[in-house]
Amino acid sequence: MKKIYTELQNHADEIKQSHLRDLFTEDPNRFNRFHVDWQEFLFDYSKNNITDKTMALLIRLAKESGLKQVIHDMFTGKRINTTENRPVLHIALRNRDNHPILVDGKDVMPEINTVLEKMHTFSDSVRNGKWLGATGQRITDVVNIGIGGSDLGPAMAVEALKHYKTDALNFHFVSNIDGTDMIENLKTCHPETTLFIISSKTFTTLETLTNATTARKWLVDSLGENAVSKHFVAVSTNKMAVSEFGINPDNMFVFWDFVGGRYSMWSAIGLSIMLAIGYDQFIELLTGAYEMDRHFQTAPFDKNMPVIMGLLSVWYSTYLKAEGYAVLPYDQYLKRLPAYLQQLDMESNGKSVKKDGTSVNYSTGAILFGEPGTNGQHSFYQLIHQGTHLIPADFIAPIHSLNEVGDHHTLLLANFVAQTEALMAGKTSEELRAEGVSENLIPFKTFSGNRPSTSILIDRITPKTLGSLIALYEHKVFVSGIIWGIDSFDQWGVELGKQLAKKVIPELSDKNKELRHDSSTNAIIQKIRNNQ
Ligand code: F6P
């Protein structure tokens, strides 16, 4: 075992003996040493269970893990997704200085720029009413059909950037194979004015193809087969499957297998985002991500936000044995951010086998959850404040609201600030006694404190700052994955359930089919069969 691992483990035992309240009292300069001021961001990680020694050890760990080299490898198109033998080039999609990025000697930028221009022309024509439905009417509703990375990124970003969205279009995101998702969304849509975007990297995903088939039938039943070309476009890497489905290749926007599903909102998978906010603001979104990419590539590790965040994840999961991780946006527009980050983080780093095929003997990615503040405060914060689990939390808030109403934003920010202070300092029995709290309630009203949080304060939510924020989390996930020695870009763990579902499908519809599962699975299938 590397010496650094032992040193970190020993240091973790030391840190458990310290209290954040004391660390702040002993060192009035603590904030200065543990924050990064960058563009519209203030990244304050001083309320984490760390000292200078912790950060020095973690940065040494990053160096000994070859992080610098792997960052370089990603940005230069090396095949760092080893189990799928692919480069990892979502960063090329927002390469705003357009420098060549070579894969097997070929620059990927010209194709990326061509697709971006095609998205530009198409989104302009839908937004300005030049693109008409089959009966000559303007499009009023856009329905993105996709799941996982082909849904969560666009759905999160369209919600986050609602303030910047055109009023001329309504957006719907259908992902679940549960027919209710489709039916409820179509209730407010009319075939003559609805545009479907079928988004699927592989174009083989059961949920998406089933939903797309239902949507196609809904349209064709009303407007006939010829209407499909005016109401369906596809985003995929699989040209053949798209044309087999009956979507005109002219209506197809391609991307490439070097873009992972959960990293794809910057590609044509972001078409609904561009339709919502327009080309120029979509470029702002890419620019924000590009700026974060530059920061990630160039800032020294001790001033590098994604590196610090990734190292903190390792510190908490592996060394302090935290199993959970909360992301708490104090902004209603960011309400889908936790759902988006669940896929980004848990599908990337929910792994127990290293790149060399051996098993890990330490904890990797944590269980991510979250809700917008202040809603979460009235729900699960109890456990974060007084429960038995260590839950590091990211608090995210804009200084300026996009909707100034009375003193709402001041109250929101007051809660944002107060929660991190409460988690850090807690409340002692002495303080309670001084307030006259009766002795029998003191154990219940005591807050241990010493609970870690990171505050990410952003000037305001704009396409650009959202781009930077998402790229920050992408790279944070990448950094932790490198340290853990896992492949953050595959997702073999989703395959088994998909295969078994295929086997169960005919068993549900054919009552005579013999069942050869375990007794629980057999009984459940039998119960469904008997009651269908
Ligand atoms: O099942 C997991 C997954 O492969 C995700 O990684 C991906 O984002 C999602 O399914 C959707 O896949 P596709 O875009 O190919 O339909």
Give an overview in words.
The protein is of the alpha/beta class and 532 residues long. Helix content is 47%, strand content 11%. It contains 22 helices and 13 strands. The chain has a six-stranded mixed beta sheet, with helices on both faces. The chain has a five-stranded parallel beta sheet with strand order 6-5-7-8-9, with helices on both faces. Strands 3-4 form a two-stranded antiparallel ribbon. Strand 1 and strand 2 form a beta hairpin. Helix 7 packs parallel to helix 12. The longest helix is centred in the last third of the chain and has 22 residues. The mean pLDDT is 97. The site of 6-O-phosphono-beta-D-fructofuranose (F6P) has 14 residues, from loops. 6-O-phosphono-beta-D-fructofuranose binds next to loops.
Task: Please provide a brief summary of the model.
It contains 22 helices and 13 strands. The protein has 532 residues and is α/β, with parallel strands linked by helices. Helix 11 links the parallel strand 8 and strand 9.
Percent range for β-strand residues: 5-15%
Low-confidence stretches: none
User: What is the strand tally?
Assistant: 13
Helix content: 40-55%
Q: Please list the strands of the largest sheet in the order they lie side by side.
A: 1-2-13-12-10-11
Specify the structural class. alpha/beta
Count of DSSP H/I helices? 22
How would you sum up the global shape?
globular
Small-molecule binders: 6-O-phosphono-beta-D-fructofuranose
Rounded Rg: 25 Å
Residue-averaged pLDDT: 97
Main sheet overview: 6 strands, mixed
End-to-end C-alpha gap: 57 Å
